[in-house]
Structures are given as structure tokens and as C-alpha cells.
Specification:
Length: 406
């Protein structure tokens, strides 16, 4: 992917293979002396038992510029939290484990519920949101990066490339988003991005007409990438989605809060693979089926907030246009796979497109039945205004968990 292409909407920073990770790391260490850099790792307890996370820790132990690593731990009981503290104890950078299912963090959440400010459902968005709040409460980091804990091809140079655009004070970027090819086991992956988001954005433009917001999203080579880094001053006003529309929701917030010149995407890897979700065609509450519905709803809400009138007839047109464009793109992906010696199962691809087409309508129906639904978690500026002591108490809760179980 070493090219020079620029879309014109946001900056694309390529990896031209002309600079070593060691050289970039030395410069990041200099930046980190004055602009502290934190990393957020949203994690399920089950990921501690997989193959990816131990290797990620090994890589992070080679990184000298991180000020602190904040691990958001979900779906863990007391014994599992104790195990997690031991598991992460070999991390060399300073680190904290936020036990979201512990009684102290649940008490923090109950205060938020009484104020109607609590995240509406569990998931990655809720995890990241609490970790951001903890970071803001500490008031020490100038840059915060986020990536997943299931990346089986992880290396420290991915983190360096992701962070560099926002850590370098000479650059104007407030947010950077990673991109990479999703290729593993001799096949092309990234089904939701390839077969839903890309043709859906084309269909929305064709049906609704030109929209700067749609052009903005289309500029990202991999809009569903879970790797992003931000300068801390933008975090208090950022509303994080609680459902599986997290990545699209964060890009939508960047569109709302930042100029395009303050956003970039950066090529962070030649090869990327992580845990794969099932298509889950039989259960719309699981897997890629649920993810596709949440992504569609996130797009519809943002378009409606910008004044676009959506109706059942419009959704039917979007579905039909999407279906044709998605099938055409399968031909392109097949040819791309063939020239690169990869296997692509056309039947599986078309099955996914048929499911996504149905979910485009399902998401539209949900939107029409409940247009006032607000899955975005309130931003931390509002939380601080409603309960000025909550962030300090959250610091104390994490410290108390550490003292009791350390």
C-alpha cells in the first residue's frame, strides 16, 4: 500500500518503508517527555486467555515513550480481577486495571444512572468511555491512543505510527486513525467494511445526493479500524457510542467537532489480523449481524441530525442501490484476490451482502420507530458539570480496588 494517493478530504500518511521504527521511537520518547502519552486497552477477561494479548504485552514492554497504560476490564468477577492484576503485572510501563464489574465501579455507575448519564448498554464503547473518564481525571496525558486486545499480528511499530501524527507538536492533527490491509490465511477479510460500509456510503450518496459528511467517511480506507489516537483536549466533548457503531460514531464526532485538516489516517501495518466475528445470520443480536445494524443506525442518526429527511421509501431505495453496488464490488474483490493469489468465496460474500441488505432495512425501521433514541453516552464535560466529584471518586475507587486486591 506504499503509494502517494490523497483523497482531498483528510490527510493520508503512508508507510513508504523509508524510516525505521527505532528512529520514530526515539523521537516519540522526546515528545513524551513534555507531552505524556497514554494507551487505553479495552479488554474482555476472555482475551486474557487467548494468544494475542500475551504477545501484545511483550511488544508494549519494548515501548519507552508510554506514560501509562489503562486497561478496561469487562466481564470479570473478583477472582478474575485478581488474576488480571497478576496477568498485567509484567507490563513495564505504569498501568491501571479498571474493574468495571467490581462493586466500587458499579457504585460510580449507579450515580451516573441517577443522573441519567450512564452508558445504556455494556460493550466496548462503555469500556472506552470509562477509561477516557479515568484518563481525564488523572489530568496528566496530552495524547491518548486506543487499540484492541485481540490483534494477533501486533507489533510496537503499529503503535508508533498511530501515535506519531498527534504526538508531534509540529503536526496539526487532533486525531489519527489507523488503516491496513485485512489479509490472513490466504484470504481477504474485513467483510463489514468491504461489503457493508463501502457500498452503503456509495448508495447513500446516490440516493441522498452529495453530503460532505459522507465524503468525509468515504475518505477513510478502513473506517472500522479500532486503532485511533487523539490529543486529550478534544476528549471532554466527545460523545462515545455505547453500541457496535463505536468506530463510525467516533468518526462522526470528529466530523462534528474538528475541521478535516485536524484529522488524518495513517498506515500502521502491512498485515493485520484479529479475532473474527461470526456472521450470525440466525441471530440479529450477535456477531456481524448486530454490528451491521448498529453501524447503519449510527449513519442514519447522524444524517438525520444534519437535516436529512429519512422515510421508509428512502430506506427501500438505499437498500436496492446498496445491493447492486455491493454485488458489483464483490466482482472487484474477486479479481483483486485472484491477482494476489488469495481465495475469495463468492457464495459467502453474497450471503453476507444479502444479510447486510436486510439489516439496512431493519436498522431503518428501528430508526423510524424510535427516532429520538440516543445511544451516544453523554460527554465527560456534562458528567463533570452534573457531578463534579465523580471523576475524583472514580480515581479513589480504582485505587481502593488496587489496595484490596493488589
Amino acid at each position: 500500500m506504499a503509494d502517494f494517493h490523497q483523497s482531498g478530504s483528510i490527510a493520508t500518511l503512508h508507510n513508504l518503508r523509508t524510516r525505521s521504527t527505532e528512529d520514530m521511537t526515539r523521537e516519540l520518547s522526546i515528545f513524551g517527555e513534555r507531552r505524556k502519552i497514554n494507551l487505553i486497552l479495552p479488554s474482555l477477561f476472555s482475551e486474557l486467555e487467548g494468544d494475542a494479548l500475551p504477545a501484545i504485552i511483550d511488544e508494549l514492554n519494548t515501548v519507552p515513550y508510554l506514560n501509562r497504560i489503562i486497561i478496561g476490564l469487562d466481564r470479570a468477577d473478583a477472582e478474575q480481577y485478581r488474576y488480571a492484576r497478576e496477568f498485567f503485572s509484567r507490563l513495564k510501563p505504569q498501568h491501571e486495571v479498571l474493574w468495571h464489574d467490581g462493586p466500587r465501579m458499579k457504585a460510580i455507575d449507579e450515580r451516573l444512572q441517577r443522573l441519567t448519564l450512564s452508558p445504556s448498554e455494556p460493550g466496548k464503547g462503555r469500556n472506552v468511555w470509562f477509561c477516557i473518564g479515568y484518563t481525564l481525571a488523572q489530568a496528566e496525558a496530552a495524547v491518548v491512543a486506543v487499540h484492541d486486545c485481540d490483534v494477533v499480528t501486533y507489533s510496537s511499530d503499529m503503535l508508533a505510527k498511530l501515535i506519531y501524527p498527534v504526538a508531534n507538536p509540529a503536526f496539526p492533527y487532533q486525531m489519527s486513525k489507523g488503516f491496513y490491509p485485512r489479509v490472513a490465511d490466504g484470504k481477504m477479510n474485513g467483510r463489514v467494511s468491504r461489503l457493508l460500509v463501502s457500498p452503503l456510503l456509495l448508495a447513500l450518496k446516490k440516493v441522498l445526493g452529495p453530503r460532505d459528511y459522507l465524503d468525509f467517511l468515504s475518505s477513510f480506507r478502513y473506517p472500522l479500524a479500532g486503532e485511533f489516537a487523539m490529543r486529550t483536549p478534544i476528549l471532554p466533548d466527545m460523545r462515545i457510542p455505547s453500541d457496535w457503531g463505536l468506530e463510525i460514531g467516533i468518526l462522526s464526532e470528529a466530523w462534528r467537532n474538528l475541521s478535516p485538516q485536524a484529522v488524518c489516517q495513517v498506515e500502521i501495518s502491512d498485515r493485520y489480523d484479529h479475532k473474527h466475528q461470526d456472521l450470525s445470520a440466525e441471530d440479529a443480536t450477535q456477531g456481524l449481524s448486530r454490528m451491521s445494524v448498529d453501524i447503519c443506525k449510527a449513519l442514519y442518526r447522524k444524517l438525520a441530525a444534519d437535516g436529512t429527511v429519512l422515510s421508509e421509501e428512502v430506506f427501500r431505495s438505499i437498500k436496492a442501490t446498496y445491493f447492486r453496488m455491493a454485488l458489483d464490488q464483490i466482482d472487484t474483490y474477486y479479481n483483486d484476490s485472484l491477482i494476489n493469489g488469495l481465495h475469495l468465496d463468492r457464495h459467502a460474500e453474497e450471503t453476507a451482502v444479502e444479510l447486510f441488505a436486510a439489516n439496512i432495512m431493519q436498522a431503518g425501521q428501528v430508526f423510524l420507530e424510535n427516532p429520538m433514541e440516543t445511544p451516544f453516552i453523554p460527554n465527560w464535560s456534562r458528567v463533570n458539570a452534573a457531578d463534579p466529584d465523580l471523576m475524583t471518586d472514580m480515581l479513589a475507587a480504582v485505587q481502593a480496588d488496587r489496595d484490596e486486591f493488589g
